[in-house]
């Protein structure tokens, strides 16, 4: 028998068991239907939207008419260069341009009007080249302008005063009905994109224009770009708006993002969900992993960066591929935009050198890629062209010489014809023209006849070789990289993305639309602004069907003895009070009591300690002892960006020592609850170690799902919930919450 130092909870009835390139794949869209008592099909139980609001940005990127407010043609003025660039852009997209300036009759030969109200026609887009855009917003509204861009800086990125000015601007924009890009943005949306490139394109979203330059420059390597949204301070239009819009554009094969701070976590997740349902990959650099990075991000965009662990988990939960470097961003986005749907997950490494193949294979395997051993029949086939003493099991070592003649192409085709192979990767560490040039051409030719992914790592630091610049980069079917690491990152992201979207079911489709009976019970137990006693916190858990041990709250020694007889010896006794947190450290927990005399003595000792420490008690809990199992922690906290979050990890004293926990943002389903467990370093404890039986994982998953329902329904009213430990008993015996802490807002 085990007495936990963290307490116990009542053995209510068991909860119910858990029931358990180039061509974009068909969207995995699932319709969401509300229940019979649903309040709205578009709002969840807390009144938050369940679908992304996708703005119609067609007239932003392809306007018919544009007003340039503050236009200039005076030499040496900053606005002159901007006006000239906007005129060139307007000509490319076929838009009429109207300069606006109070003292000029013409700008670059075009008639100029003094005010927005004097425009000769209703315009789609107004570009504001003024220091303070606020006074212009009302005029734009009167002129029924659809979109505006504000370049001006000096807003939230500068501190409190600037944040107040941005709030005034945002309020004016909301009243006007205009959609605003900026402030503190730039000209990236009006760049010249190459129109001679074919195939799926990358759409780019950045909060720092310069950080998007590497992705934009991919055009020089033959990778198509279709859009660039420099969101700036996001007083109105934000990353999520462009993410949702780009996911609907048929030419977009992948979306690349550089994110410093999210304006609204919920909007971002809805947009990511929209992209996942459409099957469009999203690759993101999100700064703020460290305290220094978070401070820099705030100073630049004036936004919260959020707790990075939550950001990371939320992105993973909705299929956003997070990378760290701009080089990874460009390489991964380029591969995902152009690669076809994988036919198999097996990766074969093929090289001129055995050492190169072994090195790459080690790194790929460690990163989680599957390198299957080729069948004996396939190996025998390869040995027709490769000497018998060389390894062809995977990695495949050709020894060098076969690539210089007709055998090279035969080897590549034979590997690609294997049904278990979905990806062929050929690392070429340095140029050796007698071999590398022919090998590169054979790979390009083979890639043209297959739907499988062919990747080449060109390791030369020079990068001017003809085999690289012309042969490899000239192919739209071969994915070419400069480093092992970026190739592995991109291939893993490609396989992960298609695995994720092939079975994707939007968690918002099943989110509760109306409160459950559990919510009504729980609401009556909440005490605004207070921490609940353990007894009250357990009542909250009971309301949601989470098992707790048998227990009674008593206020006398005699009552404690009677309670022990009803609960059944041995018992645990604990002090219970509204502001009482760490009971063990104060000696306010007594474990393994087996007689009436021990219970009486324990009651007196607990109340004496509480009196001495000045702690107000609502009573003493007499609790059932619970059989040993795996101690876990399940809890709810609030994130500044995403709202309620659910955490599960190893519990007891291990929670503070190991900090082994996984996080999700509600709503989520059983698949994500189980995925949380696979992320734990101590996951093996649940499978049974050192002769212990496997734990009841189904019951643990059920508790996690019930807690996320509680988090959704109680929302902001529940500031914090901590079940530690949740004792997960052997398989088939359930899980019991032994202690609980709850704080109400």
UniProtKB/TrEMBL annotation:
Native organism: Streptomyces monticola
Name recorded for this polypeptide: Acetate--CoA ligase family protein
Domain ATP-grasp: 538-576
Gene Ontology MF: a single term: ligase activity
Keyword annotations from UniProtKB, A to Z: ATP-binding, Ligase, Nucleotide-binding
InterPro entries (alphabetical): ATP-grasp, ATP_grasp_subdomain_1, CoA-bd, NAD(P)-bd_dom_sf, Succ_CoA_lig_flav_dom, Succinyl-CoA_synth-like
UniProt superkingdom: Bacteria
PANTHER family given in the database record: BLL6376 PROTEIN, COA BINDING DOMAIN CONTAINING PROTEIN
Chain residue ranges for the region called Disordered: 23-48
Skewed-composition ranges (Polar residues): 30-41
């Amino acid at each position: 028998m085990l007495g936990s130092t963290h307490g116990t909870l009542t053995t209510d009835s068991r909860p119910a068991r858990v029931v358990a390139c180039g061509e974009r794949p068909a969207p995995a869209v699932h319709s969401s239907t509300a229940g019979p008592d649903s309040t709205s099909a578009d709002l969840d139980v807390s009144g938050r939207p369940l679908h992304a609001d996708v703005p119609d940005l067609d007239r932003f990127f392809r306007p018919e008419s544009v007003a340039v407010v503050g236009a200039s043609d005076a030499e040496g003025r900053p606005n002159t260069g901007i006006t000239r660039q906007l005129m060139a852009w307007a000509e490319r997209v076929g838009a009429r341009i109207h300069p606006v300036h109070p003292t000029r009759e013409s700008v670059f030969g075009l008639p100029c009007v003094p005010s927005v109200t004097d425009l000769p026609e209703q315009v789609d887009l107004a570009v504001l080249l003024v220091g303070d855009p606020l006074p212009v917003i009302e005029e734009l509204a009167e002129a029924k302008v659809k979109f505006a861009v504000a370049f001006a800086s000096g807003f939230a990125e500068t501190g409190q005063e600037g944040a107040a000015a941005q709030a005034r601007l945002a309020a004016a924009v909301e009243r006007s009905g205009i959609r605003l890009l900026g402030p503190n943005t730039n000209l990236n949306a009006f760049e010249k994109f190459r129109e001679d490139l074919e195939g799926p394109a990358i759409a780019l979203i950045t909060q720092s224009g310069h950080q998007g330059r590497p992705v934009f420059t991919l055009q020089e390597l033959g990778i198509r770009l279709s859009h660039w949204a420099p969101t700036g301070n996001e007083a109105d239009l934000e990353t999520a708006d462009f993410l949702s819009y780009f996911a609907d554009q048929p030419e977009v094969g992948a979306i690349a993002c550089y994110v410093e701070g999210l304006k609204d976590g919920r909007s971002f997740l809805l947009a990511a969900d929209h992209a996942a349902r459409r099957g469009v990959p999203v690759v993101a650099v999100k700064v703020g992993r460290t305290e220094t990075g978070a401070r820099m991000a705030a100073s630049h965009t004036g936004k919260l960066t959020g707790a990075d662990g939550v950001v990371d988990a939320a992105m993973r939960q909705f299929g956003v591929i997070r990378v760290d470097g701009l080089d990874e961003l460009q390489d991964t986005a380029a591969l995902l935009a152009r690669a076809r749907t994988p036919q198999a997950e097996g990766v074969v490494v093929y090289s001129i050198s055995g050492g190169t193949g072994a090195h790459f294979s080690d790194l790929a395997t460690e990163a989680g890629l599957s390198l299957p051993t080729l069948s004996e029949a396939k190996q025998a086939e390869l040995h027709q062209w490769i000497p018998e003493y060389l390894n062809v099991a995977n990695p495949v070592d050709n020894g060098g010489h076969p690539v210089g003649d007709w055998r090279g192409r035969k080897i590549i085709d034979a590997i690609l014809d294997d049904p278990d192979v979905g990806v062929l990767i050929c690392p070429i560490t340095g140029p050796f023209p007698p071999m590398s040039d022919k090998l590169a051409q054979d790979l390009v030719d083979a890639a043209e006849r297959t739907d499988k992914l062919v990747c080449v790592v060109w390791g030369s630091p020079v990068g001017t070789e003809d085999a690289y610049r012309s042969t490899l980069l000239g192919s739209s079917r071969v994915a070419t990289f400069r480093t092992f690491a970026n190739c592995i990152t991109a291939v893993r992201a490609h396989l992960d993305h298609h695995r994720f979207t092939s079975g994707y079911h939007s968690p918002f489709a099943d989110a509760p639309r109306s409160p459950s009976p559990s919510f009504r019970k729980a609401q009556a137990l909440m005490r605004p602004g207070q921490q609940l006693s353990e007894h009250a916190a357990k009542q909250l858990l009971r309301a949601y069907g989470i098992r707790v041990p048998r227990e009674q709250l008593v206020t006398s020694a005699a009552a404690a003895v009677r309670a022990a007889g009803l609960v059944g010896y041995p018992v645990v006794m604990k002090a219970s009070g509204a502001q009482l947190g760490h009971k063990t450290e104060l000696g306010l927990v007594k474990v393994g009591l087996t007689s009436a005399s021990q219970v009486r003595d324990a009651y007196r000792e607990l109340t004496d300690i509480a009196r001495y420490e000045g702690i107000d008690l609502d009573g003493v809990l007499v609790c059932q002892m619970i059989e040993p199992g795996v101690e876990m922690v399940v809890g709810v906290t609030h994130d500044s960006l995403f709202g309620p979050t659910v955490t599960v990890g190893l519990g007891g004293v291990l929670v503070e020592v190991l900090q082994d926990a996984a996080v999700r943002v509600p709503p989520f389903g059983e698949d994500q609850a189980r995925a949380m467990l696979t992320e734990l370093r101590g996951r093996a404890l649940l499978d049974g170690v050192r002769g212990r039986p496997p734990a009841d994982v189904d019951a643990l998953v059920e508790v996690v799902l019930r807690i996320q329902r509680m988090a959704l329904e109680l929302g902001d009213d529940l500031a914090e919930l901590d079940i530690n430990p949740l004792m997960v008993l052997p398989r088939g015996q359930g899980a019991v919450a032994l202690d609980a802490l709850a704080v109400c807002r």
